[in-house]
Amino acid sequence: MISLTIDGKTVEVEEGSTILQAAEKAGIQIPTLCYHKAVLPYGACRLCLVELKWSDGTSSIQASCTYPAQEGLVVETASERVLKTRKVMMELLLARCPNVKKVREMAAEMGVKETRFPKKDEDCILCGLCARVCNERMGPGAVNFANRGTEKTVSTPYDRQSPVCMACGACQLVCPVDCVDLSKITPHTLRPIPSEFDEGLGTRPSIYTPFAQAVPNVPVIDSTTCLRLQAGTCGACEAICDANAIVFDQEDTIQELDVGTVIVATGFELFDAGRIARYGYGRLKNVLNSLEFERLSHASGPTGGEILTAEGKPPKSVAIIHCVGSRDENYQEYCSRVCCMYSLKFAHLVKEKTGAEVYNFYIDMRTPGKGYEEFYRRLLHEGVHFIRGKAAEVTDVAESAEEEGKLVVVGEDTLLGTTRRVPVDMVVLSAALTPTKDVDDIARTFSLSCAQGNFFLERHPKLAPVEAASDGLFLAGACQGPKDIPDSVAQGAAAAACALSLMDKGVVVLAPITAEIDPDLCSGCKMCIASCPYEAIEFDEEKGVSVVQEELCKGCGTCVATCPSGVAKQKGFEDVQVFAEMEGMLT
Amino acid sequence: MAEGQFEPRIVGFLCQWCSYTGADLAGTSRTEYPPNVTSIRVMCSGRVDPTFVIKALAEGADGVLIAGCHPGDCHYQVGNYKAMRRYPMLLNLLDQFGIERERVRLEWVSASEGNLFAEVVKEFTETVRALGPLNWDAKAPAEVVAG
Questions:
Q1: What is the pTM of this model?
Q2: Reported ipTM
Q3: Does residue A175 sit in the same domain as residue A212?
Q4: What is the pLDDT of residue B143?
Q5: Fold topology of B10-132
């Protein structure tokens, strides 16, 4: 470890560190433009200059990004000489690029208002970050410095689109002044990775935190797009990570856990609005489903919460169509419970953010819950138009001048008793909540039943809404039926409580319907063992008889019906008992 | 019930998890269906021994309904498959007794299919009504059937 002093503070760093790294560790800020953790320091911009005070009283000005830390070094990052020199460097930059936003901002911060040097009008500050990242980190070397001296520039060979550029976008990402035009570098169409959480409306990098509330709240690497895992290049994240938390050779592992209680909370999927072709989802621009609109209008979404059409402008009119796929004998017969409320929420957001005209096409307004009816009233006062009638179609074929270039929602207004054509800029489809695609697989794995709407069946709709029919299996949330967040949370808590009370007991209570085999009469044919779905019957080799393991027996009685000797009995459902029932019925 | 019309007596073996619950749903939904089927609850259709069916017919039933979960959905995974495999052999046995095959039916009714259960009962009752009373004593003299 090397010990040095920066601005009076002592700091210890590892061998090979630079003064800039030492300053960072000490919490001291030094301005930079051409420095980036992902590539080796270059010393191009000269903004990171510091004063080194020697023991003989002299001092030198050096670039802190490249100068190695030495034992006993004394560094001043903001002395008079440093500040004066740094300002001159800034003036030089400002002279080359007087109209670049970032350069002007930094100059203003430093108090540099004008430059004494003759001005050019360049976009690029020649920091070399794009060239360095492309050559050192990514590999292809599609861009690099060209020419020398005052003619120095950054470009592709022969100023042509490069055949080796892999369109990774790293150069554009690291450029501090946003002057990289990828279309000049590569002929490839750029294919940004669509963000799953933003419903494809936004993009994400290969290393990303799925969403703000992710558990665990750490980034993950998409191995299908990560250049390090796919092509062996980049690895910038690993270089930057101070915590050394990135380990590329992690393998997918399958963990097996022995558990006795399972809570199934697999959620829901949104109905594919494209199935109702006449609403134009997937065909017409500016027709969105509810999840897409949620991301569009959300402050953490791709537009920062600004509601914009595909053309990038705020809409002047929006239609929200309720019950898309719900309450419909052609698709899902049930009501999805949450859509009226979120449709009203959307209406309110549109009004608040854009002041646009909002039209809600509804069948019934379902607003139970605290404050929900009051919220609906509020919207009535805000001037949202409520049209009672199922929208018949969304079309872009105009039948009048005012419909040109707009989406027209055609629907019946049952309260007015007429059909209406409403031209709007954007249509939001409030789609149904449906079970996830893998619901049948999950049901088979846990032997759950699916009932109305193909959602999981609870043990009792009133008295046991979070328990499944099998012991130790619980349900929570939308997989059991469409519901909103408060109800899902309540069910989650209930299921957890049920699971805990089951585990806390310390004993397992068996239903008294298990099977038993009389060891004196069993002939050892083992037919029962073959028929048991739970492998609950063992063969006692010594005695030559089959024995039921009571803790494993679920009480189905299949072995009893299989036993050719009639020796297997099921408590509570013995043959004599069934015969007695029959007798009672028939005599 | 029409005067003098033959009312078939049908014993139903319903599995606890699917068909019994389905029948219960038909009840709570106040669905109307004939009262000719009396249900015996078993945990699984796999519990239904062919001797139950024969015994029921011997004790005076005109028809027997066995109902379980849909294949693949058995609460005990595979119990209903066992029932499915026993059924053809049972029908063979009925042939040997000279009993009409239509008197014993195997149906799959899930817990949410209350209406289906009602329909099955309606239809089966009419089928058995058309076949008339079983007259077990004529078909299977006491010496042949043990117990």
A1: 0.78
A2: 0.89
A3: no
A4: 57
A5: Rossmann fold (3.40.50)
